[in-house]
Design brief:
The protein has 14 helices and no strands. It has a domain of 275 residues. It is mostly helical.
């Protein structure tokens, strides 16, 4: 787990659950077929969410809402309270307030039906926008969770690959740290002492004379005959014991004693062969040596799991790029539902004021004098709400146009990758 904890997802994403990483890591098998399909469930889930996110950011046209607002405006503007006043002069002899009120009530009934239906349609669009906002929020949360699940797979695979790369190095370190068996290079003291015993001088009864080569013999290379001593009784000449015994070491007059161990070490040491210096003429005769052909290194193929991780990380980057688009789609319509809802409420307030001002609030129409000021104020209030909703729609459409410009390159990238 030490390597797993040290590996973090790129892009500043939060670290996945270590328990989940460990569970995924112990399911990895070093087989090509298994490595190629590693994390397939997490990959498929995130790919599906990416497609949904791309579709959701391009849906929800607001053009119909603008048409409905214009429809309400036209019908409300067609009801002018000034038509309740009869004409003056001779034309007013054949005109009366009751006739005008009756005609005005008929025009209001027709406009009220159309405005009420348009307000109901706007209410449906508001409900659609609210459901879309909820769907975008849910999609954003699901995408984030799917990215975290894919991060757990990527971190587990990276940890496994890191351990696979470290294992051969640790084996070589362990082999180099193992103690080597004792060889024959070092000899025990007993062996050196035995070797030195071969060089111990043989005992001599009489005085030992130093034997050496005369200068003439050394220069000519001739053999030196040993000196002959004559017996005191006149017998035949006898060679000295120092010449007859090959094991006898002839001692000269030396002031210091001979170290037997040093003699053994010098005897066992092999003379170093002398290397003859290379002639300079041969080195200078070939100033431009032929280039030695070095074979090109063989490129090793990446591990199948490494190739799989490259594809998973590309999908992860695409999903992370979808998250801002989802938020942008939510922010594009954040004010539109409220503005449209205010229009629906304004229509209800307008209907109530007009019905009361025209004497239509009860079960039967009443004979009243309509309040033209009240009717005009109710119409102005509804028109103001329609204007505010129109401005909100224009801003939302502008933000959606910018969002479509950001989504188009993403669709092209996905098409090229496919």
């Amino acid at each position: 787990m030490g390597v797993a904890v040290s590996i973090s997802p790129p892009g500043g994403a939060p670290k996945p659950d270590p328990a989940r990483v460990a569970a995924i890591r112990y399911t990895i098998v070093d087989e090509p077929e298994t490595c190629v399909a590693f994390g397939e469930s997490a990959r498929a889930a995130l790919a599906s969410l990416n497609d949904r996110a791309l579709a959701e950011t391009r849906t929800g046209d607001l053009g119909e809402c603008r048409l409905l607002l214009d429809h309400i405006r036209d019908h409300v503007a067609g009801l002018d309270p000034a038509r309740l006043v009869p004409r003056s002069g001779l034309a007013g002899l054949f005109d009366s307030r009751s006739k005008r009120l009756k005609a005005f009530r008929a025009g209001y009934a027709s406009a009220d039906s159309a405005v009420t239906q348009a307000a109901a349609d706007i209410g449906e669009r508001v409900a659609v926008l609210a459901r879309r906002d909820t769907a975008l929020e849910t999609l954003w949360s699901e995408t984030r969770e799917a990215i975290a699940e894919l991060d757990a797979h990527i971190v587990a695979a990276r940890s496994w690959l890191a351990n696979e790369a470290v294992a051969p190095v640790m084996e070589r370190v362990a082999e180099s740290a193992a103690p080597e068996p004792a060889g024959d290079a070092l000899q025990p003291v007993e062996t050196i002492a035995e070797a030195g015993a071969e060089f111990s001088p043989a005992p001599v009864d009489g005085p030992v004379e130093a034997l050496g080569e005369t200068p003439e013999a050394a220069g000519s290379g001739a053999e030196v005959e040993p000196e002959v001593e004559a017996d005191a009784g006149g017998s035949a000449p006898v060679l000295s014991e120092a010449v007859e015994s090959p094991e006898t070491v002839v001692l000269t007059d030396v002031a210091e004693p001979v170290d037997v161990v040093e003699l053994a070490a010098e005897a066992s040491a092999e003379p170093e062969p002398e290397t003859a210096p290379e002639p300079e003429a041969e080195l200078q005769s070939d100033p431009d040596p032929e280039p030695v052909h070095t074979p090109a290194p063989v490129a090793s193929l990446p591990h199948p799991l490494e190739t799989r991780l490259t594809a998973l990380e590309a999908l992860r980057a695409t999903a992370i790029g979808r998250l801002p688009l989802l938020r942008a789609a939510q922010n594009a319509d954040c004010r539109t539902p409220t503005a449209l809802k205010q229009v629906c409420d304004g229509v209800e307030a307008w209907r109530a004021d007009w019905q009361d001002a025209l004497g239509l609030a009860g079960k039967r129409p009443k004979k009243i004098t309509p309040d033209r000021v009240r009717l005009s104020q109710a119409t102005s209030a509804l028109t103001d709400r329609i204007d505010a909703a129109g401005r909100a729609l224009s801003a939302a459409q502008g933000r959606r146009a910018e969002l479509d410009a950001r989504v188009a390159p993403a669709q092209t990238t996905i098409a090229l990758a496919a």
